[in-house]
Amino acid sequence: xxxxxxxxxxxxxxxxxxxxxxxxxxxxxxxxxxxxxxxxxxxxxxxxxxxxxxxxxxxxxxxxxxxxxxxxxxxxxxxxxxxxxxxxxxxxxxxxxxxxxxxxxxxxxxxxxxxxxxxxxxxxxxxxxxxxxxxxxxxxxxxxxxxxxxxxxxxxxxxxxxxxxxxxxxxxxxxxxxxxxxxxxxxxxxxxxxxxxxxxxxxxxxxxxxxxxxxxxxxxxxxxxxxxxxxxxxxxxxxxx
Length: 241
What we know:
Elements: E1 2-6, H1 17-25, E2 29-33, H2 50-62, E3 68-73, H3 76-86, E4 91-97, H4 108-114, E5 124-126, E6 132-135, H5 140-144, H6 150-159, E7 163-164, E8 184-189, H7 197-206, E9 212-215, H8 221-224, H9 226-239
Parallel strand pairs: 1-2, 1-3, 3-4, 4-8, 8-9
Antiparallel strand pairs: 5-6, 6-7
Helix pairs in contact: 1-9, 2-3
């Protein structure tokens, strides 16, 4: 199976490095995508939109010669949702990894406000450029990496980038005929402090996913336990057959 891995806010393709290695040891292939303005991508943050994110992932997938399992972490739940609307026939399925799961017309910034217990509330600050956000100094470790090894958390924090606000305020637009035709699954992280387990369950109740796999981890299972995350992905991929 080929997995396309899409990172969340502030992160880049780098966050998947340990999971990619784990999947390769199991004879799977994986592609991790830098969204515009993230990781090593030079796109100016003023040009970053949800459409730009979606276009980047669509291009990557179209270059592959087989259906893929499209995995979206956190904010990327909105990205993979819109990608499924654009190219449903290219996807074996969608995997939401402790991710936002928006219905058509929903906006990430509004969904995040529903999650009243999220540790992100009160931890976000204006970034160095207009209309960007950063996580307050010292807060990222406890929000994103509290169950990860210190050296891994340190390296990840050093690579976080400002997040453009525009994609967070743009609604997804999907149809039952296209997005609704793609199998979707969810990996729920019960110790998540960024998108709480209660919020994850609320979104799944509104837009059911199967299978639902639960991991007793925080917001970054790709660092906390990549082997367990790979097990979950294999289980989900096998369920499509």
